Amino acid sequence: MTDSLYWNPLLETLPLEKLKQFQLKKFQRIFTWAYDHSKFHRHLYDDARICPSDIRSLADIRHVPKVEKSMMREIQNKDPFPYGDALCVPLAEVSAFRQTSGTTGQPVYQPDTWQDWEWWSECWSFVLWSQGYRPKDRVFLPFGYNIFVAFWAGHYAAEKLGCEVVPGGVLDTQARILKIQEIKATAMMATPTYILRMAEVAKHKMGIDPSSLSIDKITCAGEPGAGIPATKKRMEEAFGAKVYDHSGATEIGAWSYECSHQPLGMHVNEAMFLVEIEDLETGKIIEEAGKPGKMVITALDRMAQPCVRFDSKDVIQWDKDPCTCGRSFRLIRGGVIGRADDITKVKGVLLSPAAIEEVVRSFDGLGDAYEVVVDRPGDVDRIVLKVELLTGVSRSDIEGKLRDQLRLKTNLGYGIEFFGYGSLPRYKLKAKRFKDLREKSLLHREAGR
To answer: CB-based contacts of 400: which residues, under 8 Å, 6+ apart?
Structure first.
C-alpha cells in the first residue's frame, strides 16, 4: 500500500462517465436523506416544488435550491438545541461539535456523528496520501486545538495513515519550533500566514534557519496563500520543503487537495463531493475551463447536518488539462482564487485581494506582512497598500517596480506606505489584511453634515 500513488486507486482513477454516474447515485441518496429527515430541507424543497423523484440526471440537480450560511444561522438555537431543524439524526447520535470561525458573521454550529467524523478522516486521507504522507512520517500540528475544525480531521487522518502525530496545541511559536527541532518532525499542517510567521520567528528571534529543520512537506489550508505562486515560493524556500494547498470548510468538509505533482491547482475529491461552478453575474452553471465562478457544493456522504448545494462563496475555475498524476478527479486552476464576498469593485474595477498578495510576495525586498485599505474620503475610491521593507533595502529600489506590477496585475493605482520591518500586525491563524472602509467613510461624512 505504501508504494501506491493513490489512497483509493479505484475511485481516484474511475473513468469520467462512471464517476458521474457514481455522483448522481450519491446525490440522489443524500438529497432523499435530507428531504426525509430534515424539517429545514423539506420546507425548502417543498417551497421549490422539488422532491427526490425529480432528480433523474445531473442536470436536474441544478433545480435544487441552494443553501446559504445565513439560512443556517437563522435556524440555530432552536430545538433540537443548539442545531435547529436541519439536524437529521437524534441528538444522542451527535458525537462531535465544531463551529465556523465567525470571521464573516455569527458562527454556524456543525454537528457530526461518529460516522461523519470517520468520513472527515477519510476525506483527509485522500489529501495527505496524495501529498506523500506515509507511516514513516512524524507529523507536527502547530495549531490551537479548539472548537474550530482547523486541522482536527487532518490529525486523525494522519493517524489513520499510520503516521506518528505530535500535537503542538498549547505551545507558543518558539516552543513549537524547538519541539520540531528536537524530535525531527518531517511534516506539518498550518495556515500560510502561520507558516510564514514560524519562519520569521525562527530566523529573526531564535537565530534558527527554518530550512535546517527536518520538515520536508507542509500542508496549508484556511487561506488561498499556498495556491499563490509567490507565497508558495516564500514558504518552500524558507523551510526547504514542499508546500501543498488544500481547501475545506466546517460546513462542507475536506473537498480538495493539491497532489505531489503540484499541478498549480487542486483536485476536487469528486468521489466524495459534487462541485458546480456558478457564473457570478448570471448564475448559470459553468462547464468550460478558465472561467471563474462561485462554487456550489454538495458533500455526498455527510449525514447529521447535510451539505446539499451549499453556496460556499469560494471563487474557483476548472482547469482545461488533467493532472499528470493520472487521477480522474478534475483540477481547479490556481486553487481557490478568493471569495465572492472579497471580490469587490474599486474605481469600477473588480479586485481580488489574492492578486495583490501575488504581487507583494514576488518582491524579495518586502516582508511577509502587508495590509490593504480601501476607503472613500471624498467621491472617489482610494486604495492604500502598506508594506514592510526588509533591513538594508532601499525604498527607491522597489517603489516604482511595485507600482508598475500592481497596475499590471490589478488595473488599479495605489498609494503605497512603507514601514520598517516588524511594524505591521502579525497573525497566528487567518490574516486580516484586506480592509474595506468605504461604508465607514460614508457614514462618517454623513454624520458630519
So the answer is: none
Could you tell me the pTM of the whole model? 0.88
- The amino acid occupying position 283 is G
Cβ burial, residue 388 (10 Å; 0-12/13-18/19+) = buried
In the block, which residue shows the cell 484556511?
222
What the block records as the C-alpha cell of 221 is 489550508
2: left (phi over 0), alpha (psi -120 to 50) or beta: alpha
Give the helix/strand (H/E) hosting 345: strand 344-346
Residues 6 or more apart in contact with residue 92 via CB below 8 angstroms: none
- Region 1-339: CATH code: 3.40.50.12780
Kindly state the cell numbers that stand for 395.
525604498
Cα dihedral 193/199/202/208 (nearest 10): 170
The grid cell for 436 is 474595506
**Whole-angstrom Cα distance, residue 27 to residue 58?**
9
User: From CA 25, how far away is CA 296, in angstroms rounded?
Assistant: 18
Q: CATH for 344-447? A: 3.30.300.30
Contact at 8 Å (CB) between 11 and 26?
no
Judged by average pLDDT, the poorest of 54-58, 385-389, 405-409, 424-428 is 424-428
Q: What is the pLDDT of residues 57-98, one digit of tens each?
A: 999 999 999 999 999 999 998 999 999 999 999 999 999 999
C-alpha span between 254 and 120 (Å, rounded): 7
Contact 325, 51 (CB under 8 A): no
CA distances from 384 to 76, 193, 304, 348, 397 (A): 39, 21, 45, 16, 19
- DSSP H/E element including 274: strand 273-278
Note the pLDDT tens digit of each residue in 314-355: 999 999 999 999 999 999 999 998 888 777 888 888 888 888
Sequence ranges of the domains in the chain: 1-339, 344-447
Helical packing angle, 229-239 and 353-361, nearest 10°? 40
Instruction: Work out the mean pLDDT of the chain and round it to a whole number.
Output: 93
